[in-house]
Every structure is written in C-alpha cells, then in structure tokens.
C-alpha cells in the first residue's frame, strides 16, 4: 500500500492519496485543483490508474474552475452533487463501497459542514473532511446544517471504535490526524458539550459572506 498526505500551508487544506501498488490503482480524497499537475506526476511515478476522485465536500461556487481542473485527472468524481458519469459509476458499487485494486472504501453520509457532506472509511481510517473543523474552514465560517453536524459527529463518528483514526480536510494551526477517543474527550466544540450548548455556540459564529 501507498499513502500520502498533501497539506497546503496557506489554506490549511489537506488531501490524501491512497494506492494499491500491486494492483496499480489509487484514489484521491479532497484533491485541490491547484495540485493537479503534482498529483498527475505522483500517479505517473508509481504507474497508478486513478480509480476514484472522492470529495468529502466542495466549495466550487467560490473556486472558479475547480471542478473542471479535477476532471482533468480522468476519474469518476464522487461527491454529494454527482455529475451523470460519476453517478452511474457510483451506482456500480454495492452498499456504498468503492473498490480500488484489492482495497475498498466505504462511502458514508455525514451532512453538516455542508448539506451533502460525505466521509470515507478505509481500513481503520475515516476521512471526514470539514466535520470536525466547525469554524476552521476558510470558505465557510459556519456549518451549513448545525443540527445535522451534531448528529453526524456525535451519533456516527464518535460511536465508532476508539482507535479509529480521523483525518480532517482542514488543518490550519491544528493536527491533520487524531482518533475517536481523543476527539470524544477533548474536541473544543463537541467534547463534553451538550447538543444545546453546541448549537448556541454555532449561532454566535459569523454567517458566510455571499459568493
């Protein structure tokens, strides 16, 4: 197996490359359009076929040309608003499971940061995008659906085994990886808070400026 993390210092965005080197297939999670040349070179270096392009969420309305740049990588793009080709490809997967080589990724519905957020479970690793960021996304200072975010985090992510590794999509002045036990106990928004306390704090966050 091959696993790489790419971190953009300026925006805090984190992307991930997972690959089965023996089978020559890979997936990308939350790649940035600006990194397409680098990502293409990485795939070529290891002679990898990009099987899936997975997005936990997107802010394409604020990033002109982002989706088109990613489509240049030539793989089905899986996200909450699926283009027709990707929707057909995703329909081939049983029970929300996508395969690459001898590996598989489970697609999970985890709305909250945006209305249609997805998370991806691979082995003992959950790639959950902006779910744990709450107020750290540079494109969206406030969760789109706070009630759904609470449910996704507390009633889904935090119910998983304590040792499950959590990989974020935003790591600005914070860690890119933690685990369920740690976040249950010490997350600054969810750890030790009640649902009402969480929602009250979110209401104090600024609204996103119109695009």
From TrEMBL:
Q: Known PANTHER family for this protein?
A: PERSULFIDE DIOXYGENASE ETHE1, PERSULFIDE DIOXYGENASE ETHE1, MITOCHONDRIAL
Q: What is the lineage of its organism?
A: Bacteria, Pseudomonadati, Pseudomonadota, Betaproteobacteria, Burkholderiales
Q: Which GO terms describe its biological process?
A: glutathione metabolic process; hydrogen sulfide metabolic process
Which SUPFAM superfamilies does the record match to this protein? Metallo-hydrolase/oxidoreductase
Q: What's the protein here called?
A: Glyoxylase-like metal-dependent hydrolase (Beta-lactamase superfamily II)
Q: Name one GO molecular function term.
A: sulfur dioxygenase activity
Which organism is this entry from? Sphaerotilus sulfidivorans
Metallo-beta-lactamase domain ranges (all copies): 12-170
Against InterPro entries, the record matches this protein to: Metallo-B-lactamas (IPR001279), Mito_Persulfide_Diox (IPR051682), RibonucZ/Hydroxyglut_hydro (IPR036866)
């Amino acid at each position: 197996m091959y696993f790489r993390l790419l971190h953009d210092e300026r925006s805090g965005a984190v992307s991930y490359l997972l690959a089965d080197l023996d089978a020559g297939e890979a997936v990308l999670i939350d790649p940035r359009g600006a990194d397409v040349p680098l990502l293409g070179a990485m795939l070529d270096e290891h002679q990898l076929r990009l099987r899936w392009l997975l997005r936990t969420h997107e802010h394409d309305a604020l990033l002109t040309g982002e989706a088109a740049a990613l489509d240049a990588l030539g793989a089905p793009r899986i996200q909450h608003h699926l283009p027709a080709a990707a929707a057909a490809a995703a329909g081939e997967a049983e029970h929300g499971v996508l395969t690459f080589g001898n590996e598989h990724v489970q697609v999970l519905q985890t709305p909250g940061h945006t209305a249609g957020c997805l998370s991806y479970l691979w082995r003992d690793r959950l790639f959950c995008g902006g779910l744990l960021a709450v107020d750290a996304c540079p494109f969206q200072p406030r969760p789109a659906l706070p009630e759904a975010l609470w449910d996704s985090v507390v009633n889904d992510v935090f119910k998983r085994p304590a040792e499950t590794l959590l990989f974020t999509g935003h790591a600005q002045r914070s860690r890119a990886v933690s685990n369920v036990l740690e976040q249950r106990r010490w997350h600054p928004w969810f750890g030790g808070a009640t649902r009402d306390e969480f929602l009250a704090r979110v209401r104090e966050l600024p609204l996103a400026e119109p695009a």
